[in-house]
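In the current project phase, the collection of sequences with tokenised folds has grown. A sample record is quoted in full directly below:
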Amino acid sequence: MAVVRAKDSSLPLSPLLAAFRAKARTPRTIPVLDAAILDTTEPHAFADRLVNFYQQAVPHGWHEDRMRRSAALLRYAIAHILRGTDPLPLRLERCLRPDGAYFVAGLGREFWSAVAQSLAPMTLPRWKPSVEAGARRVGLIAAGFAELCATYTNLLTHTPDLCAADLDDFFTR
């Protein structure tokens, strides 16, 4: 395997990945947001489906009421994430930055990366603090979602038996 210990890393990646792959893993369920709800769902039903997705994606979230109040803006924001043509990290930034066009206070990286992961659930990472911290510990990323996506692409190329949810679990551990 071409994936080896990263420069300035405090932990060796290859033995850690080998140990992770050797253990029996339970299949992970990735919450998926069906893009069809953007076009065919009435506003109230859209808010209900969005809250359901939020509960799966961010089980400790507290912003269900805000999601219901901001459902119209969130419909546009989700359409931007799922259908936009700009690079995905730039689309996410528009939802995450307080001065971004689609910013909704309280909805952070964990929610928006779950929406993004709906684009390609087998290959895109969940950009949550535990995953980012794990990738930093082995020296694979310095900062940002774009770098994490590139890392996942590289790792999944060399470990075809894993998917993005497995790498999320690996880095979280």
Q: What stands out?
A: DSSP finds ten helices and no strands in the chain. Residues 43-57 form the longest helix (15 residues). The two ends are 21 Å apart (CA to CA).
